[in-house]
Design brief:
Layout: E1 8-14, H1 18-24, H2 37-50, E2 56-59, H3 61-65, H4 70-78, E3 82-85, H5 99-117, E4 123-124, H6 133-141, E5 146-147, H7 156-166, H8 171-176, E6 194-198, E7 201-205, H9 220-227, H10 231-247, E8 253-256, H11 280-297, E9 299-301, H12 303-308
Parallel strand pairs: 1-2, 1-8, 1-9, 2-3, 4-5, 5-7
Antiparallel strand pairs: 6-7
The structure holds zinc ion.
The site of zinc ion has 6 residues, from loops.
Length: 309
């Protein structure tokens, strides 16, 4: 008898380059766009190829606008992965922009991303999970099929406090970042895929999945953070997360970041990040075990296919 089909889960990677974190963190050296894309992209593509996986990469328009990144970004599309839009300027205060500026942000990002990769995005994730009804309205008018900008957790304000504690920002810069990583109310948003209805139409929303009921995150960066306290704790937490999703019939949307595949020596400017004490080799090992566990329970697909299902 054939085994029953496994439920699907989508996998995406926010291709935040080194400068995006330095910019949010208030490090003035971001303006030269320091990059680790040429190191991390081949590493991630190799990891995915070995596992025969096609996922979604959310690309920042500014990176696509730089000629020097074209070959590395094109290699992602050439490997058969979906290319999505992660804004042009990667400013987590996108929700504070005027409608005109949001339109400009989308137009510039789409143009640069399509020129670099040959794919026009049909999905969007706001930088730092910044989204608003106006952002959704613009997305709908531009023919997008899904948004992936919500992280339904109660831990956002805690993450923000940690971040402010470490960052060098003046009061004006802090004001812009007032909703960085979300508010307590975000913890009450749905965790399952749903139709986000607005006065200007509706769009499929694929939240970054958090553990049902408790609403705590389990993206790979979070598992790495737990691993730095205890490998046993990290593995138990991961298993709990996957089991809870299956029980609640939630199709997870599993999130990756470049720093999940980079060691401290490869991005010394980002040593303030939790999880940057681990070496690249240790992180690759954790990625392997995490994906093995994920694939035991779910069939892994891109965001585009998740939205279609
Ligand atoms: Zn980002």
């Amino acid at each position: 008898m054939p085994l029953p089909a496994k439920p699907i889960a989508s996998v995406s990677l926010d291709l935040d380059d080194k400068w995006t974190y330095m910019k949010t963190h208030g490090d003035p050296n971001w303006s030269e766009f320091p990059s680790y894309l040429s190191v991390v992209v081949p590493r991630v593509l190799d990891f995915l190829r070995k596992r025969n996986l096609k996922i979604t990469f959310f690309i920042v328009g500014q990176d696509a606008a730089l000629e020097r990144n074209h070959a590395v970004l094109r290699s992602i599309a050439d490997a058969g992965h979906e290319i999505s839009n992660h804004s042009f300027h990667h400013e987590p205060w996108l929700h504070l922009y005027s409608e005109e500026d949001i339109r400009q942000e989308f137009a510039s990002a789409e143009q640069a991303i399509a020129a670099a990769t040959g794919q026009r995005p049909i999905g969007f994730r706001g930088p730092g999970f910044s989204v608003s009804e106006t952002v959704i309205k613009v997305m709908i008018s531009r023919g997008y099929q899904y948004d992936a900008s919500t992280l339904p957790t109660f831990l956002g304000p805690l993450a923000r406090a940690y971040y402010f504690f470490n960052a060098k920002l003046d009061p004006e810069e802090k004001k812009k970042r007032a909703k960085l990583f979300g508010t307590l109310a975000d913890g009450l948003k749905p965790i399952k895929v749903y139709n986000w209805k607005t006065p200007s139409g509706s769009i499929t929303e694929i939240p970054v999945t958090t553990i049902p009921i408790v609403r705590s995150p389990f993206h790979l960066s979070y598992l790495i953070y737990l691993q730095s306290f205890s490998p046993l704790l990290s593995a138990a937490y991961r298993n709990l997360a996957f089991a809870a999703c299956k029980m609640a019939r939630v199709n997870p949307s599993f999130l990756l970041h470049p720093l999940d595949f980079l060691g401290r020596d490869e991005a010394p400017e980002l040593a303030f990040f939790p999880g940057m004490k681990m070496s690249a080799a240790e992180k690759m090992k954790l990625a392997e075990t995490t994906f093995s566990a994920l694939e035991e329970s779910f069939t892994l697909v891109s965001m585009r296919d998740h939205a279609k299902s």
